[in-house]
Amino acid sequence: MKKLTIGTIKRRKNETPLVMITAYDALFARLLSQSADILLVGDSLNMSFGGNLDTLSITMDQMIYHTNAVCNGAQDTFIITDMPFGSYTDEKIALDNAIRVYRETSADAIKIEGGADKASLIHHLTSNGIAVCGHIGLLPQAVRAEGGYKVKGKTEEEALSLIADAQAIEKAGAFIIVIEGVKADVATRVAQSVSIPLIGIGAGNGVDGQVLVFSDMLGLYEPFVPKFVKQYMNGAKKVKEAANAYKIEVQNREFPNENYIY
Ligand code: KIV
Predict the structure, then answer these.
(1) Residue 241 and residue 224 share a domain
(2) Does 224 score more than 90 pLDDT?
(3) CA of residue 244 relative to chain centroid, distance
(4) Catalytic residue flag (residue 158)
(5) 82 C-beta closer than 6 A to ligand 1
(6) Same domain for 253 and 131
(7) Residue 122 domain-assigned?
(8) 43 lines ligand 1 (CB under 6 A)
(9) What DSSP assignment string belongs to 199-222?
(10) Is the per-residue pLDDT at 1 higher than 90?
(11) Is position 1 within any domain?
(12) Are residues 116 and 202 in the same domain?
């Protein structure tokens, strides 16, 4: 049985903040599910796992493969999977792809990037039995269209637009919203403007929970460390040290010693 459900997640509004972490495979899903309320199979896997420059080239098939791996590793954890770029360009395509997620994996919900412009699409999904997580603010799938990753909420106009986005998504039936790359005071106002939980990433502490990309949180991803990322361990250093210790023992014929042979 799942530790959390849509109902218990919604009831965490204004309560103990929700802990969301990304996961891309069964190995890390098993380890991270001990601490995470929700695991997100983020399309960020296209960058940290796939080595690509942005999230845009990941496919539905790849998301489904990774979602199954995460579901296998964390069967009692609530799992949200990202709908990849191009998989929700209209209502029919979005519903067909969301149904694929439900038929081919045991993910609990899907995530869609976009604000009020996606409200009717989200309504179409939720009214057809799909649980939807919204994603507003900095939208990684818009990186090429916007010419970079742009922090949002810098003007009052942007603040009001983010509030309108969150309210439209809530009205469309979403049960939770991720807010990314938004000025902290504005994210707090957005959180206060809706009755579903708002999960922040680079959006300060006045929201209903936090999400981090696991490879950022563990200090494993070296190419770029965003300002909002706290590394809870120096994973890259530890992995390199371990691999180097193995290398030295192999080269010196110290491994395998008598403890590791048949
Ligand atoms: O893809 C992802 O990991 C995400 C998080 C940044 C929220 O969408």
Answers:
(1) no
(2) no
(3) 32
(4) no
(5) yes
(6) no
(7) yes
(8) yes
(9) EEESS-SSSSEEEE-HHHHTT---
(10) no
(11) no
(12) yes
Q: Is residue 67 part of a domain?
A: yes
Going from the Cα of 157 to the center of ligand 1, the distance in angstroms, rounded, reads 25
- Residue range 21-36, pLDDT digits in tens: 999 999 999 999 999 9
In terms of domains, do 181 and 220 share one? yes
At 120, the pLDDT band (50, 70, 90 cuts) reads very high
CATH number of the domain that 39 lies in?
3.20.20.60
Partners of 176 in beta bridges = 133
pLDDT digits (tens, 9 = 90+) for 162-213: 999 999 999 999 999 999 999 999 999 999 999 999 999 999 999 999 999 9
Distance of alpha carbon 38 from its chain centroid, rounded? 9
Question: What residues make up the domain containing 252?
Answer: 235-262
In a domain, 89, yes or no: yes
Please compute, for residue 216, the number of CA atoms within 13 A of its CA located in the half-sphere on the CB side: 18
Q: How many domains does the chain have?
A: 2
Ligand 1 centroid, distance to 250 Cα (angstroms): 39
Residue whose token pair is 């810098």: 154
